[in-house]
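ok trying again, last paste got cut off:
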Amino acid sequence: MRISPLIASGIIILALMVAGCTTPATQSPATTTAVPTVPPGSPIVGSWVLESMVSAGSPVVLVPGTTISALFGPEGRISGSDGCNQYSGTYMVSGSQLQVSPALASTMMACPTQIMDQATTYTRILLVPASWQVSGDRLTIQAGQSILVYVKPVPTPATTVPPVATPAAPPIGSWDLTSMTYMSGGSSVTVMPAGVINAIFGQDGKVQGYAGCNDYSAAYTTNGSSMAVSGTVKTTQSCGGQLDTQERAYLGVLGTAARFENIGTQLTIYDAQTPGSKLVYKPGTATVSPIPTAIVGTWTLIGMDKTGTSITLSPSVMTTAIFTADGKVSGNAGCNQYNGGYVLTGASAIGISPLATTKMYCPDPAGRQETNYLTIFQNAATWEVSDVSGKLTIGAGTGNSLLYQKTS
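nice, full thing came through this time. structure:
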């Protein structure tokens, strides 16, 4: 049958109208699945202790008494110790390839040169893209001719801590030390303190006091009768002989606290590492002295002396220190941010805790200035704010000092 041109045109128009009224099929947006940085069940996950190290083809003899470790988490986090400082960051595994992010955070405690050199070598190798392999209880990371070999840590035998007779009440308040038991030369020694030693446990998780020569502060946590103390910082005055020995022993036991017993009239803290080591206190009357307002505020570095030589500061690099009234310090070291704690003794003594800092690469002059600054700041021993100029001077031994101008 022949269709007239008019009818044919009508059919085409109708078809186009129907097509125009038809709702197009909706396309679902493409879904993206996050690519895991660590495959499930990867054997790299877990705690490892460095057994040996080769740098650029040359074996490195590890410093006796130091422990270098790495904890690879299943979520792509890495943390550990470089033998001197604690570090943390992220990592990614792809097949047999390993990449640790260069943006590692690290504390900034000063150690002997040999240990610092070892830590620098270890970190440099760890941050290079490398291959990895787990064979038995050994992890091998290799980047060219540099090799790190780890083993699984040996479990530490559980130590026996004297049982707590009654549930421990929180140790909140002021306590005066009445006796101390610690290990000396392989023997257990119990002594009565020569002079005043005390501890003030605050509701804010901070313990502070006087250790017989220097003021100190630290963070503490309790869970039932368990206790942990960390981040101890003190000033660096020396009182000589017996007082210095006594102070080291006291802070050593307190810093490794494992359990405590509070019966109201007596507080006993037990050491985590040495059975029998303990601190015994009675209720005290000491109170926390407020931090002088003179040091509180934001300070900008305007001068630096190192070993008696004035260091020329780069005009393009700003270095700051912010001291707060709650004993915290932070700032910009010239390239990286840092933070930690501080404590004061008397009118002029200061102590800075091991600092945590970002790990961004800093080319000179910022890198060189930052290194000099943190070395001096971390070893701060004295402070003074001039009544005339209002400037803050931080001293760190003969010929080492930092000069700041207050900005807020």
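cool. The chain has four helices and 29 strands. The longest strand covers residues 173-184.
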